Amino acid sequence: MTAPWEYRDPLEVELAAGVSAASLMEHVRTIGAWERESGSPGEAQAFDYIERTLKSYGIEVERREIEAYISLPLEGQVRLEGGTVIEGLTHSFSPSVEALEGEVVDVGDGRPEDLKRAAGKIALVRGLASPGRAWAAQQAGTVGQIFVLMDHLHNMIVTTIWGTPGPETASRIPVTPCLSILGTDGERLRARLARGPLRLRMTTRVRTGWMPIPHLIGELAGRHEDRFLLFSGHVDSWHHGAMDNGTANATMLEVARLLAARRDALRRGIRFAFWSGHSHGRYAGSAWYADHAWRELHQRCILHLNVDSTGARGATDYSVLHATEDAQRFAETVVADVTGQRGRGRRFSRAGDQSFWGAGVPSAFMSLSGLPKQETELSRAMERLVGSAGFPWWWHTKDDTIDKIDADVLALDTKVYLASALRWLNAPVLLLDHRPAAKSVVAELEALQASAGAGFDLSPALDAARALGERLEHVAAMLARVDAKAARLDAINRGLMRLSRVLVPLAYTSGDPFTHDLALPMPPLAGLQPARRLGALDPESDAFKFARAALVRERNRAVHALDTAASVADELSSLEDRS
Questions:
Q1: Is residue 150 very low, low, confident or very high in pLDDT (cuts 50, 70, 90)?
Q2: pTM above 0.85, yes or no
Q3: Which of 6, 11, 38, 502 sits most deeply, having the most CB atoms within 10 A of its CB?
Q4: For residue 33, is it within any domain?
Q5: Are 236 and 68 in contact, with CB atoms under 8 Å apart?
Q6: pLDDT (average), residues 424-451
Q7: Rounded Cα–Cα distance for residues 176 and 205 (Å)
Q8: Do 200 and 162 belong to one domain?
């Protein structure tokens, strides 16, 4: 038997031939006809259409309303002395202000030292509004922020809170208003500043509060196992959102149609999850599902397959593939098989509806096809935010309409998702390879040790990570020899899932599997990252000793996880003799 991630399902060729570009485009036209803000009538109509379509395929559907904390931007403008008005765009979770008056300070890219100069004033910031930048500006004491973009205004959400706030995160709901203006208007303000101090008035109107939003799960049961693949995408969008996310909804419906026609051939089940609250609630829908289905996700979900913004005009590049490390070999293999391109699996950024890492669920994809690399402000911003520079200029704008969709690109993207689903549903051995995860942990620990120097000893964690890597080599060799009809397949798959349950939270969470980390960049081994700062501290200071005490605890957490994974790997290796 070949390596598990090289599995090809016998149905792929047959079902791929059935992918209909015409059907895909009809779904996009229908869904994209409605403006779909979270909780809006247009979004409800789109959910009605999705529900009817899934039921017409004979798929069991569960639809409900959930309560979420949603923020809908309404108006943003700047008024200069003399009455000149600059129309802008405010953002989800900006507070509303009728006429905030203040002096403006140009802080460039918003570096910490520059933000300090804007304390008590309105910061003029170059670039895309983002949660991290808005929070940093608020913490620096600014009373408001004006973000200056280039040619287009992009709708954004500026809260750092993932999903519905809890008591421990509610204090992070933004309290300083922000809006974005075009680059030409920003240059006017900078030119005016060059002549001396400038005062202006900001107006923002944003409707923020509790709101019922739709939530829909369609399910096909597996014939031989009760495990399931979670296949998800959001329905709520900015404006008509043909690409983001009407095309992804179409991809899901087309995959559902084709799989439903061959449901008798599915070894495992699949859940089609359609979220609201993605764009206006910071992933409120998927976070709600993670909270309320945590146990079955932890016990039974083999992978979260996410789809966002498929089929964009000009999106011919598949070189960047997001996946947790245990699913990266699968991601590279399936994209190469379907598209002929060699992409590189890379670590997920803290973005998208990736709400399931606390439950230890591996995940693959978010956006898929992208525009070839561009040297634009948006590309650079998106590379920082979501790890992909291939987003087109109409992303999150009123111009995201049906004319921006390429039916052939959409069909090819859909074939990648179809092949991905089939392989995870039917592969005898789950398509997981945990060796890249162990190598990533070793590399991160080595970098942390180099930064900490003599200030802290990470060798217990490094020894555990290297030992895990050796054991996983034995697991990989065993898996390559497993017969597809082996008696111990269920135990093997259970062991592979247990490895992910340990290693995914270690790499992608701060440690608590039942809460959602902030929507901010999350480095691997987050609790050990303070080791990088030890060298700048006085070894006799309280700050150094407090940090060292915390690092001991975080080292224990890492060693425990790595030892647990090593024990699971040993159990897996032993299964070969009994299969």
A1: confident
A2: yes
A3: 38
A4: yes
A5: no
A6: 97
A7: 12
A8: yes
